[in-house]
Specification:
single chain; 492 residues; alpha+beta; Beta-Lactamase; 4 domains; 5-stranded antiparallel sheet; 19 strands; rod-shaped
Length: 492
Amino acid sequence: MGYSEEELRAINFLDLTHEDYRQANWALITELVEGKRRQFQIEKKYRRKDGSLIWVNNNVSLVPGTERVPRFIMALSEDITERKRAEQALRRSEAYLAEAQRLAETGSWAYNPTAEKCIYWSDEMLRIFGLDPQRNLPDREEFLRLVHPEDRDRFNEQIEKSRREKSDFVQDYRVVLTDGTVKHIHGIGHPVLDETGSIIEYVGTDVDVTERKRAEEALQRSEAYLAEAQKLTHTGSWVWNVRTDALFWSQEVFRIYGYDPEKMAHPTWDFFERVHPEDRRKFEQRKKRMASTQKERADSEIDFRIVLPDGTIKHLHSIAHPVIESGDEVVGTVMDVTEQWKARAELENAFEEIKQRTEALRRSEAYLAEAQKLTHTGSWAVRVPQMENAQGDAGQGLAVLPRFGWDASYWSREMYRIFGLDPDSTPPSFMEVVRRVHPEDAGYYTPVVEQAIRDRADFEADYRLLLPNGTAKHVHVVGHPVVNASDILFDF
């Protein structure tokens, strides 16, 4: 305490006692003096002469007096300061451990295999398994009822194997809580042996990995969807570490380059041998750019060909992008565009053929126009209307002609010249044509045309034209019917 014996004789013991314990200490002294108790024990703090505090454990008793010696109180004090510090440190450690277990969702446990009972579960262990901290810890059968039915046999096999071999066990299993919640657990157990080598208990941890499992399953689904999408689009992804020269390929890249991923554990630049000889130079230049432009963060694209061992040639399109965060990696894609290239080539060939045919057609039309001009022969096409709708189109004065009351859909330039019309205008209407047929020939010409319509037959006729300037022309006409798939006449 730091006091001399003389100083202590002059001090009341309550003056040495910390104020937090004085009232309780005095109450015990009073009961002792009143004979309500023979002795008592108390742990309290004393304040030393220098003001510092120490913990003491006092055993106090009342010593009966005699005729010569009055009764007195005797106290034996033990300095327990170090023990109290150790207890306080232990409580802090336990609190930190409990908080760490809560944050890591990790519970700790101890199990007696002989009694088949759990002898210790941490608070986090109880929380993970949804058990009430106030109830007794589960025995073996109660715990097994929590294990998912599909995992129960495997769980038991692991435990029995550990007991036979006196070895640690690690296993993943599921539990079904009383409310139906399913959790994924990662458990680790360690046997504790006595001096004879017998297992006296197991200690271990159980980690709630439910969220991690869900994340892994979601990632696996995402990777499966991505792999399927890459397979459908013939697009693979890759990563190149510029510093280590290491490559990573997705499954589709292996397929594109014709490699078996089971036989080629780690892709290398040996695939360069499959790059088409004519494209190797630009491929090498692109690789150098990807490495040299890493600091410039420049993307790049390239189209190149590869030749597979069986001689198959593929056309590929690749895009590369430097990763800014890592500084050492380039990520990219490679797409098999062989089918698109073939389709484009076929389309270009088709366009070229159309172009050639169009030019040939134009030449043919020019030759035909020149031939028609030389032979004074025009060509034409007309749409034949429905018979019941034709009469009302031409008027009563031409009651017979309306059945042929159609308008021309095509006239060659020589036709315009023969009829004295402007070749840059649209084909004339039926009435314009009729007005130029000689009046004396209209009655002869019309029945021939009508009969050809009814018979869907070719026809020939000779008639005269009478142009507005009075010029008369003799014309020989030949017509041929055109029918559709339903055998309906729609053109001459």
